[in-house]
Write a structure and sequence with these properties.
By secondary structure, the protein is an alpha/beta fold. It is 41% helix and 13% strand. It has a 7-stranded parallel sheet, with helices on both faces. The structure holds beta-D-glucopyranose (BGC). Beta-D-glucopyranose (BGC) binds next to loops. This is SDR family oxidoreductase.
Length: 279
């Protein structure tokens, strides 16, 4: 039994994605890492994309392989078109196809707006938004080429765009990041609308405050942690496994009728917590 109140139990469905081929971008740490491992645990072969830190990516690969599935690491910067093309075509060569894309790679370059450089703006938009567009485009080409294989899945392909609660919560001091995630919301819906007739399911997961390196300053000190918990009605900081579990189920045929939506996995952060006592 899982007795740690801070950590969710993993989805107990090892066969849910059996035989499927999954690509997770930014899978060497945080949410991407947990998701890649969870997909492997659910029976998928998994490509672990990373931008830097090969040893970390290789450790994820080792853990995925321990579940008896194939896995390898592939370095690529998702904001670079040629690298994304190579990432997906190599996967098709090595694993035969792609069934699931988790477009997860993302970063923050925070600054007050008047101090934000164009470089900070463009870096975040190019990785968080353009990177998801490029990966989705390449995956969709292969989904369309292959079509539905009923023994594998009812869909021709599944894309999960990793968004954020900041696709709807404005975030002062993070205009580049919030704008990128607002863009991801519309990327998700537009792709979903465009390709649903071809049986491609595009959805997003919007994590709230998940304990990862990206937001260390928000949970590292007791004061920061207390302030953060005020924003979370469920009163616990999220674990990467909270997102990974949702991704496994969303990628599976259990969610075959879920098309073009965002699943908020945020402990209630989007419920306007200030209004619990105010207003
Ligand atoms: C950001 C985190 C932040 C969380 C909730 C995420 O998308 O990457 O830094 O803690 O949203 O505000």
């Amino acid at each position: 039994m899982n007795t740690n109140p801070e950590r969710p139990p993993p989805v107990p469905v090892p066969e849910l994605l059996k035989g499927q081929k999954a690509l997770v971008t930014g899978a060497n740490s945080g949410i991407g890492k947990a998701t890649a491992i969870a997909l492997g645990r659910a029976g998928a072969d998994v490509v672990v994309n990373y931008a830097s830190d090969r040893p970390a990516a290789e450790a994820v690969v080792t853990e995925i392989r321990s579940h008896g599935v194939h896995s390898y690491a592939h370095q690529a910067d998702v904001s670079q078109e040629d690298q994304v093309t190579d990432l997906v075509s190599t996967m098709v060569d090595r694993l035969g196809t792609i069934d699931v894309l988790v477009a997860n790679a993302g970063l923050q370059r925070d600054a007050p707006t008047v101090e934000m450089t164009l470089e900070q703006w463009e870096k975040v938009i190019s990785v968080n938004l353009t990177g998801q567009f490029l990966c989705a485009r390449e995956a969709i080409k292969e989904f369309l080429r292959r079509g539905v294989v009923p023994e594998v899945s009812r869909a021709a392909g599944k894309i999960i765009c990793m968004s954020s609660v900041h696709q709807i919560i404005p975030w002062a001091g993070h205009v580049n990041y919030a704008s990128s995630k607002g863009g991801v919301a519309m990327l998700t819906q537009t792709l979903a609308q465009e390709f649903a007739p071809q049986k491609i399911r595009v959805n997003a997961i919007a994590p709230g405050a998940i304990k990862t390196p990206i937001n260390r300053s928000a949970w590292q000190t007791p004061e920061a942690r207390t302030a953060l918990l005020e924003l979370i009605p469920y009163r616990r900081i999220g674990d990467p496994l909270d997102i990974a579990n949702a991704a496994v189920v969303l990628a599976s045929d259990l969610c075959d009728y879920v098309v073009g939506t965002t699943i908020y996995v945020d402990g209630g952060m989007t419920l306007f917590p200030g209004f619990a006592t105010g207003g």
